[in-house]
Amino acid sequence: MKKLLLPLTLLAWSLATFESIAKPPPNIVFILSDDQAWTDYGFMGHPEIKTPHLDELARQSLVFERGYVAAPLCRPSLASMLTGLYPFQHGITGNDVEGPNRRAELDVPVRKQFYTHQNFVRFLKNNGYLAHQSGKWWEGSWQDGGFTHGMTHGNPARGGRHGDEGLTIGRKSMKPVKEFIDLAIEKQRPFLTWYAPFLPHTPHNPPAQLLKKYIVPGRSMDEAKYYAMCEWFDSTCGELLDYLNKKEIRENTLVIYICDNGWAAASTNKDDPAQKLWKGYAQRSKSSPFEKGIRTPIMLSWPERIKNGRTQDLAHAIDLFPTIVAAAELKLTVKLPGINLLDRQARAKRKRVFGVCHSVYNMSPGNPDGTLQYLWCVENDWKLLLRYSGLDTTRYKQLHIWDKEPTRLYNLKSDPHEKNELSAMHPEIVNRLRKGIHEWHLAP
């Protein structure tokens, strides 16, 4: 009787399948807030904003209280999360090439260049994951991004720009995400959900019952609406997390939380220089390199696999790609500057994090530094901002005119809201951090 010999490829597939059955890879639920300051959560100590569902997630998470994004603006920030690269490496430095002009034409080569880089969506799909896109998405359609399912068509002729149909998620319904989770369970496949609702982003039009809670004497209506939007966003996160529990898949699901960039609503305190307004929000928030523009809590939650707690270790959006790969026990096939946030030794070795700030509404393809406004560095308690004068050719060019200081130094431990500029008092720290910034920015 002849022995039945399996082809090597089939045998390898069989072994891989057996291994995955014995130890299935985790589902990845990626939750992304849109325009929310690092202070504006219950678990981060805000005295008024109610975020009970994210507070509960924080209790179940490893919380990096000192997380940072690569850029204080949604498109370059998301691009860095996806690729694990800085904006000057992946080429997405602003929201558009030339403001609202010729988007369909000018964005094609930028997006084509961007997709020469690996991203964690495509990486997971290539390793057997189903992947669903909803909410904010700039780089064309969900198919362009490497998802197997999604909502955003990305066609400028149909109004596609930064999420289009995907922006209804959370605001109108959670049904598309829930249906995708059901599909993945049915097919017994690990899955990734990119849940990036247009919340608490403008338009600030929260449900009336939420807004009513935040209207109090002495608080501007802009602030009240924004506070209510934060709670609305929190409620949608609760609905998503509850669904994971309902489907009994939470134990093998890694939940990642981060915000794309900060926000500070118009305040009633007009004498505060940090509250000068830009298009209805404080200048030292979104689109700026100050803490309310670039800082965010980062949370990693995986029951019985990641120990709950809080840490002051520096974390960065570029770390998410290598962290996801490590959690899924896959092998990273590209060299990335970030670290695996689950690796305590790597976190302990890190002394600094870096980032950029470019012009908001225009890019200079092929020359990313052409629109550079700031480079920044955080080292322990110190933060240095270096000011540049990148080209800003759009009608919004007054965005950063208010700040012409070439160097700003702050001690974040004693001055977390950056009110006391200390560069003249500590020239040795300025020189050390400036050198570090230049070495990082010029590194291959």
Protein model, in words:
With 444 residues, this protein is an alpha/beta fold. It has a single domain, classed as Alkaline Phosphatase, subunit A (3-Layer(aba) Sandwich). The chain has 14 helices and 15 strands. The strands form 3 sheets. Strands 1, 2, 3, 4, 5, 6, 9, 10 and 11 form a 9-stranded mixed beta sheet that branches. Helix 9 (208-214) crosses helix 10 (221-246). The longest helix has 26 residues, at 221-246. Mean pLDDT is 91; it is low at 1-21 and 395-399.
- Global geometry: globular
Supply the helix-strand structural class: alpha/beta
The N- and C-terminal alpha carbons lie at a distance of 61 Å
CATH class: Alpha Beta
- Determine the mean pLDDT: 91
Sheet with most strands: 9 strands, mixed
Beta-strand percent range: 15-25%
How many extended strands? 15
Element-by-element helix/strand order: HEHEHHHHEHEHEHHEEEHEEEHHEEEEH
Provide the number of structural domains: 1
CATH topology: Alkaline Phosphatase, subunit A
Blueprint (SSEs and pairs):
Layout: H1 8-22, E1 27-33, H2 52-59, E2 62-68, H3 74-83, H4 87-90, H5 103-114, H6 120-126, E3 130-135, H7 142-145, E4 149-150, H8 175-187, E5 191-196, H9 208-214, H10 221-246, E6 253-259, E7 277-278, E8 281-282, H11 291-294, E9 295-301, E10 309-311, E11 315-316, H12 320-327, H13 344-349, E12 352-358, E13 372-379, E14 382-387, E15 407-411, H14 427-442
Parallel strand pairs: 1-5, 1-6, 2-10, 2-11, 3-4, 3-5
Antiparallel strand pairs: 2-9, 6-9, 7-8, 12-13, 13-14, 14-15
Helix pairs in contact: 9-10
